[in-house]
Design goal:
By secondary structure, the chain is α+β, with helices and mostly antiparallel strands. 18% of the residues lie in helices and 44% in strands. Helix 7 crosses helix 8 (390-403).
Length: 493
């Protein structure tokens, strides 16, 4: 069992760790998680031919059950000298797959985007987010605002990796003596709060010199401390430590849940571990959330049963459902191999409930090699390789549902397991699917079905819903580790 939180961490570090890099100079940073060196970041700014090209790379290696996985993201932005966006590029290497995103920004407020994966290209045009800047635009804003203690300002930063803008708020603090791997320098503290659309937020603490050049950045993620520290090239690119993050993906259950599959509903009482802000936990057809004072929340999960008699494909006009049947760069429901698998799974049934049931069971048996070695694969890659874990089960299930016209979304959250790799009675990071049938979203979990558990049940707590893109895991990254489960009530009736 795993989640793609590490992908989101790479994206967050790329956005939050942007430094003031002098022209034609490369800055190197070592990345640490829980005090162990796990990778590096490289930042470069080049001024030539009247344009500014900024490149930011994050390379991160973690281990899960002694199985190392390396993930690499690189973002390049091209802007005018005065910070106007011109073009961008993102390369995402997720251990098994490579995605390339290129874009050109036009004066009419639109941007043409090309996404390349597995040799296939997908072209689209988006509205450029109003007021959004990239690396150089942010650098100029920082220089303009300066480092006066107490001031704060906001900005929209466009990230090529997720093809959307991220809202950030910057607050300038005082000067502190900061340890930089043995060097102690007086630096200005800068707090940056980053918020993704329809997701939670993450606040990082950076330390910059008088030229606004980043020297150190500290970010809490999933209950862990992630640090980026300026250093020499040799150390940044040098050997990493081994950090196994499996235990960080799990939350203790206050009580064992015996035969969770038989529960009609389960109510969870959640308490934030820090702060009093409301936890960004979504409500839906299968999960209801009641927010309490002090940031506490009561989450009741009551799985719905798919009603018989509903037909497919979906022929309505609701925007959310139309989006949920479209192919995406991770759910390539228009690829012939996905369509072929989907029709092979559903056979001759015309009933939507029976169709998703058959797809869930088919994927449960189709993925033969269940392992943690895959960084993150698209549905097409899973169809070819037949390997992966919960996220690979989920993307293939969702894509196959969409291929036959049944709206489907990826759900990220926590799921109860009585034991896993020596851990007992835990809620672990997990991914599953919800499909829309007869005016309701119904949960599907082909990964659990493959283990004999039976599929989706009340032992699932949803934290985010999306199309399975890495940015969809941001809410999981920003929420996991920020709360505890104080109490659980199981309803068997």
């Amino acid at each position: 069992m795993k989640v793609r939180c590490i992908l989101a961490i790479c994206l967050v570090l790329t956005a939050a760790g942007r430094a003031q890099t002098p022209s034609d100079q490369t800055e190197y940073f070592a990345l640490f998680m829980e005090g162990k060196k796990v990778g590096y970041a490289i930042q470069n700014r080049l001024v030539a031919d009247g344009n500014v090209t900024t490149t930011e790379q994050v390379n991160l290696t973690i281990s899960r059950l002694n199985m190392p996985v390396t993930m690499n993201t690189t973002e390049t932005s091209i802007e005018t000298i005065d910070g106007k966006p011109l073009a961008f590029e993102a390369l995402q290497d997720f251990s098994m797959m490579m995605i390339k995103i290129t874009g050109k920004v036009h004066k009419n407020g639109k941007a043409d985007i090309t996404v390349t994966s597995m040799g296939a290209e997908e072209k689209s045009t988006i509205e450029w987010p109003k007021g959004a800047v990239m690396a150089e635009g942010l650098r100029l804003l920082q220089l303009k605002r300066g480092l006066k203690q107490g001031q704060s300002y906001t900005a929209k930063i466009f990230s090529a990796s997720i093809m959307q803008a991220v809202d950030i708020k910057t607050t300038i603090g005082g000067k502190k003596n900061v340890d930089l791997l043995g060097r102690v320098l007086p630096l200005t503290e800068v707090h940056t709060t980053m918020k993704m659309p329809d997701a939670g937020q993450i606040t990082s603490t950076g330390y910059v010199n008088d030229n606004f050049q980043l020297q150190k950045n500290i970010m809490p993620v999933m209950g862990m401390k992630v640090e980026m520290v300026a250093c020499e090239k040799a150390f940044a690119l040098g050997q990493n430590d081994v950090l196994d993050v499996v235990d960080k993906m799990f939350l203790p259950s206050p009580v064992p849940l015996n035969n969770v599959r038989s529960a009609k509903s389960i109510t969870y009482y959640l308490r934030p571990t820090a702060g009093t802000d409301a936890l960004p936990i979504p409500s839906g057809d299968n999960q209801k959330v009641r927010q309490l004072k002090g940031g506490r929340a009561i989450v009741t999960v009551r799985p719905l049963t798919a009603p018989k008699g509903a037909r497919f494909p979906y022929k309505g006009t609701e925007k959310t459902l139309l989006e949920a049947i479209k192919p995406t760069r991770f759910l390539q429901s228009d690829r012939k191999e996905i369509i072929k698998l989907a029709h092979r799974a559903i056979g001759d049934t015309k009933d939507a409930a029976e169709a998703v049931k058959r797809i869930e069971a088919f994927v449960a048996g189709y993925i033969e090699n269940k392992n943690l070695s895959v960084g993150y694969a698209t549905a097409a890659e899973v169809a070819a390789s037949r390997q992966g874990d919960c996220t690979e089960f989920a993307v293939l299930t969702a894509a196959m549902c969409r291929a036959v016209g049944i709206p489907a979304q990826i759900v990220m959250g926590l799921a109860y397991v009585d034991q896993y790799s020596g851990l007992r009675d835990r809620f672990g990071g997990h991914a599953w699917v919800q499909a829309y049938i007869a005016n309701r979203w119904v949960g599907l979990d082909s990964a659990f079905k493959s283990t004999g558990r039976g599929g989706y049940d009340a032992g699932h707590i949803a934290l985010a819903v999306g199309d399975g893109a890495p940015e969809d895991f941001f809410n999981l990254v920003s929420t996991l580790g920020q709360f505890k489960i104080d109490r659980i009530i199981v309803n068997k009736n």
